# Entry
Amino acid sequence: MSDYFELVGVANTSLTSAESAAAAFGLPRAYESAAALIASPDIDVVIVTVKVSHHREVVTAALQNRKSVYCEWPLGNGLTEALELARLANDKKVLAVVGTQAIASPEVQFVRKMVADGYVGEVLSSTYIGAGFTWGDDVSLGEAYAMDSKNGATLLSVIGGHAIAAVHSALGQLREVAAVLSQRRRTVRVTETGETIPMRTPDQVLVSGVLQLWRSPVDAASRWFASRNAAAVEINGTEGDLPHHR
# Structure
């Protein structure tokens, strides 16, 4: 979106790492901390893509400095933090956006258009299966923190949240929801070190609900897949199905 935004600087855990990132992407400025970036008069919008456990600190600082904020999903570590940050943005009258990037995916936009154009007619039922590739047998060192629910990056809060956003975008809001969380693995191996660490978070999420517009059932499941591309959507309607079956 270079017609609207200019990426002018980056902050990381140290000035050295920020300078490396700035050099790699041709950015004019590197900051020694998130606080320094937020305080800079050269920054209008702060993009928050740190671990979920740090979202509250960085987003709060940006809002207090009246900087516009784009924060990756989930906004906070749990509902309490998310509501707190939303209230702060409203109080400061600052533009703040939470990034549920599934709604920008070409596939989701295509499905939304097909449904809106009446290809399937009235939606009778729908199923969404998402891939939670982090919560499997192996995990990278950088994602190991997601093996503990207390850190806020779970299969439910991350993959599940994006799945619900995709369903909302294509089919509308849910009016009723029931869910099951299950944990089938107890340990996971860290790829870089070979170390086995405990898993303290669900690795299976099943959600069922009723669509507000169509009053029809929808199922959404998130579980571990070996492939990052293992996701599937099926919509059954009075006039046709997606995907189309001969």
